[in-house]
C-alpha cells in the first residue's frame, strides 16, 4: 500500500503533478459545464458534470495521489494523520496552481463565445443577492460546512491511507454529484477552496468580496469530518494505521538493502 513520507521520491513528484492536473481538469470541465453549458444542461447536468469528472479523475490519478484535487480533502487527510504536513503543503500548492491554470484556460475559451458574461459570474460561488435562492451568509456557511463534511468523510471512509483503489472513486463521485444538486441553488456549491478561489480571481470584485466564506467553511467542515471519522471508524483507523506502518517499515528495509 502506497504511503508518502518526508523523503522526496519520483512517486511523490508524480503525486504533485497528478494533483495539479486533476484540479486543472476539474475546474476546466466541471466549472466549464456551468459557464459554457449551464443554460442547456441545467442544475442536474452541472451536478452530473462535477460528479462524473471527479469519478474519472479518481480512476486516473487516485492510485498515485489519492485524487484529492481539493484543499479541504487534503486538510481532512492531514487531520486524520494519513499524510504529513509537508505532503499537505505540496498538495495545496499543486491544487491552487492547477485551479488557477484551469480557470485561465476556461476564461480563454469563454472569451471566444460572443455575448457570454464572465464578470461577476464565471461559475463563482455566492450568498445573498448572488445566490439563486437568496440564502444569507449564515445559511451559506452552514451549507458549505455540511456539504464539505460529507465529501471529506466519504474520502476518509473509502480510502486506505491515501490511495483511491478499486471502486472507491464511485461513492465519492456520486456524493459529489448529490452535493451539487443540493448546493447549486444555494451557493453555487463551493466545497473546494481551490475551485472557489480560481474563478473568482477572473470574475472581478463581486465574487472576490464573498470568496472568503468558500475558503473558510470547507476547511472547518473537513476538520469536523476527520474528527467524526475517528469516532465512527476507530477499529478501521487502527487497522489502516498498522498496515501503513508495516508498509513504511518494508519500504525502509528495501531502501537499506539497496544501499547495502
Structure explained in plain terms:
With 260 residues, the protein is mainly α. Helices cover 74% and strands 0% of the residues. The chain contains 8 helices and no strands. The protein has helices at residues 10-65, 71-79, 85-110, 137-158, 169-183, 193-203, 205-232, 234-259. The radius of gyration is 19 Å and the shape is globular. Residues 1-7 have low confidence and may be disordered.
Topology:
Elements: H1 10-65, H2 71-79, H3 85-110, H4 137-158, H5 169-183, H6 193-203, H7 205-232, H8 234-259
Features of the shown structure:
globular; 0% strand; mainly alpha; 8 helices; 260 residues
In whole angstroms, the N-to-C terminal distance is 24 Å
Decide which structural class fits the backbone. Answer: mainly alpha
Shape: globular
Helicity level: over 70%
Element order, helices and strands? HHHHHHHH
DSSP helical segment count: 8
The overall pLDDT average reads 89
- Rg, Å, rounded: 19 Å
Short description:
The protein has 260 residues and is mainly α. It contains 8 helices and no strands.
Amino acid at each position: 500500500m502506497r504511503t508518502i513520507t518526508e523523503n522526496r521520491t519520483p512517486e511523490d513528484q508524480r503525486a504533485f503533478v497528478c494533483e495539479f492536473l486533476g484540479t486543472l481538469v476539474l475546474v476546466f470541465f466541471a466549472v466549464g459545464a456551468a459557464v459554457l453549458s449551464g443554460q442547456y444542461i441545467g442544475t442536474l447536468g452541472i451536478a452530473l458534470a462535477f460528479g462524473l469528472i471527479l469519478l474519472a479523475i479518481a480512476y486516473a490519478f487516485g492510485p498515485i495521489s489519492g485524487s484529492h484535487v481539493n484543499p479541504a480533502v487534503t486538510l481532512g487527510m492531514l487531520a486524520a494523520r494519513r499524510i504529513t504536513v509537508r505532503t499537505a503543503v505540496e498538495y495545496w500548492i499543486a491544487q491552487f496552481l492547477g485551479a488557477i491554470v484551469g480557470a485561465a484556460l476556461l476564461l480563454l475559451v469563454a472569451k471566444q463565445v460572443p455575448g457570454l458574461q464572465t464578470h461577476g459570474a464565471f461559475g463563482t460561488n455566492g450568498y445573498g443577492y448572488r445566490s439563486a435562492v437568496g440564502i444569507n451568509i449564515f445559511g451559506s456557511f452552514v451549507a458549505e460546512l455540511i456539504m464539505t463534511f460529507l465529501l471529506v468523510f466519504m474520502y476518509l471512509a473509502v480510502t486506505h491511507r491515501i490511495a483511491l483503489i478499486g471502486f472507491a472513486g464511485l461513492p465519492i463521485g456520486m456524493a459529489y454529484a448529490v452535493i451539487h444538486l443540493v448546493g447549486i441553488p444555494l451557493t453555487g456549491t463551493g466545497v473546494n477552496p481551490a475551485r472557489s478561489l480560481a474563478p473568482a480571481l477572473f470574475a472581478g470584485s463581486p465574487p472576490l468580496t464573498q470568496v472568503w466564506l468558500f475558503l473558510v467553511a470547507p476547511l472547518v467542515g473537513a476538520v469536523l469530518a476527520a474528527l467524526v471519522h475517528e469516532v465512527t471508524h476507530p477499529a478501521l483507523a487502527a487497522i489502516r494505521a498498522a498496515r501503513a506502518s508495516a508498509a513504511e517499515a518494508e519500504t525502509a528495509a528495501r531502501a537499506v538493502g539497496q544501499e547495502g
